[in-house]
Specification:
It contains 2 helices and 3 strands. The protein is of the alpha+beta class and 75 residues long. The protein has a single domain, classed as 2-Layer Sandwich (Alpha-Beta Plaits).
Length: 75
């Protein structure tokens, strides 16, 4: 049986406040990619984040797509 992929999206862009996730312009988001594991997504996130280390208003995030695609049922 094949291992189930746990997809993760890595993207970033300029935020209005470094303490928030309020991206200024969604047309200018940097879509780094979709990755089959958290480890690979984290590696891509680290590379993208480090390339903008001097810009506090440039933020990159990892989105757990697998959680959005198959949310756990809550009672």
């Amino acid at each position: 049986m094949a291992k189930k992929l746990l997809l993760h999206l890595v993207f970033g862009g300029q935020v209005s406040d470094p303490r928030t996730m309020d991206f200024i312009d969604t047309q200018e988001l940097d879509i780094v990619g979709i990755f089959p594991s958290y480890a690979e997504a984290h590696k891509a996130w680290r590379g993208a984040s480090h390339s903008h280390v001097d810009d506090a208003y440039q933020k990159y995030v990892i989105v757990h797509l697998h959680r959005l695609l198959e949310p756990k049922e809550t009672e």
